[in-house]
Amino acid sequence: MTGKFRRLASTVVGLLFLGTQAGAEDFARLRDVPAPVRQHVQSVLRSCLEYDRKAGPAMETSGIQAIDLTGKGRRAILVDNVHLCRGHMAGANCSNRGCDLRIWEQHPDGTWKLTFNEHAHDKFVSLDRDTNKFQFMAISIYAGDPRCEPDQGRDYTSGQSCDLLVTYEKGRWHWRRPR
Q1: What pLDDT is recorded for position 62?
Q2: Whole-model pTM above 0.85?
Q3: Who has the most CB within 10 Å: 9, 67, 145, 170?
Q4: In Å, how far are 33, 51, 177 from 158, measured between CA atoms?
């Protein structure tokens, strides 16, 4: 974790509630999770159990969080791969650099669509403690990603990252560098 990211996360942690560490309150059992989300979770769990038979989740729905992206009751589900299998397991639920973070959003017709899918070196997700409304994310991704505004002509190793702030407004994800 870079120093700038650590300072940002420390500041934010004191002000806002972090909701991604716990299992989803709305889903008591994995079978209650919508099919597209459940398929992803089951695939990750299989990988973890192949890697280590004791790597199952602490709770059946660990790493799965019901959230509200808009504040208007539009349901979404955040899945943090690192919490699906009792922590970071390179080659199973994560890579040696980070873990996937995915968010599915329920559309008015009832279908669930994957709206956010990033391989994060590190992340902090802020949710309103009363409503579970998504506030923002501080996320570290590969430094060579165009959203990091990399230096032209410079080569970045897969372990180098940049820190970005991510918000969700009017149905779109907005990325910006902290200044």
Answers
A1: 83
A2: no
A3: 67
A4: 33, 23, 19
